[in-house]
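It is worth pausing here to work through a concrete case rather than discussing structure prediction in the abstract. The textbook approach is simple: state the sequence, then state the predicted structure, then interpret. We follow exactly that order.
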Amino acid sequence: MIETPEIAGTGCPVLHEAACRYLQVFNHVTVAIAVIDPESGRYLEVNDVLCERLQYSREELLQTTVPQVNPRFQPAAMVELTRQVERNQVVQFYSHQTTRSGDDLEVLMTVTPIYRNGALLLHCATVDVTAQLRAERRFIDSERRFRETFDQAAVGMAHVAVDGTWQRVNQRLCDIVGYSALELRNLKFEDITHPDDLEADWEQARALLRGAINTYSLEKRYVRRDRSPVWVNLTVSLARNEIGEPEYFISVIEDISARRQAEAERDELIRTLEEQVRRRTEELERLSMTDALTGIGNRRCFDQALAMEWARGVRSGRPLSILVIDVDYFKRLNDRLGHACGDRCMIAVAAALRSLGTRSSDLVARYGGDEFAFLLPETDHAGAEEMARKAKAAVQALHIANPEARLGRLTISQGTGTAVPTPDCSSRELLEAADRAMYMAKRRGRNRICVSQSE
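Step two, the predicted structure:
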């Protein structure tokens, strides 16, 4: 404990009691206290709080000076402090203290003068504010970083009141919508939102206010100051106060106009390519079904049509007929007059046969080198024979010379086949029957029509 002989030795009970009270407060107050001789810089009195803070014993502090414990507080600083205390009586300022282990503490120091035996002493009370000041600096730094992040962000940022009023906006948002910050603060977000997108935005905002969701994102359009639309990606969260009440919306706005334009151009390109592919596919499909020389259907085309019409006939119970047609002595014509002449003959025969079809379902196809096939849905054997006679006449009417033929002109041999399709039979059987009839016509001298015996 600290004693004051000049007071305790007076023998005055009142003064003795006052001294005891002072010592009681001095040693048990939570503030670090020291009495310092400004002339020598020595500690004259220190309390336990100061000793614990600086990590020295009382005896060690009382045997040293302030500059020795705290190198920041050199004699020149002590002189200036003494001058200010004499003039102002109370001096308060932020300073530093250094612990024995070298830690730097920031303190709020209050210095008042006391006099003993006519000599000025400094009564120093210090409060450790290291944590407080560091927290304040962190807060200030955080605020600075926030302002810099907010104001200099590459995306639009805004604080929007719960009624839709713009409270704070950054420059990027102003650039996106074409309004100044002052103009925006006189508007609400719905004032610049495209009418078609407003309800979707408000619906999400109301859900946010109800606490149903924590955040939402949507793509929407703002209407710029020049009335042109701009597409943005909007992400919104909600700031609440200490008691959980909504304070304002935090909005992040990214200009996606370029992306939307690129997507629109991409989608249009995809549509164009898909249309080109569709047309090309149809063209390839058509080519795969078309005889390159004559332009009529090829064998694949005929086989597919036959299978389809057979299935249809099974359902309807209607008859289906086929003509198998062979150009007489075509190989000899080719060998004698050449392939170019033979090609012209095949083209002419194909055109003549195709002209006979009166229904969309009638199909003439080139089935082989010099063979044609005629598909006649819903046609009985009489109708098939009638179509065969027309085909014979049509080819003869071409008046194409064929020195190898008996009549000296191009003729055809035909076989007909007719059946009512059933699940127990196949279209292949009908085609083979017509083919056999065609070979019978050739064996009987050509330029004639034979009917399948199965009919």
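Step three, interpretation. The chain is about 45% helix and 25% strand. The radius of gyration is 55 Å.
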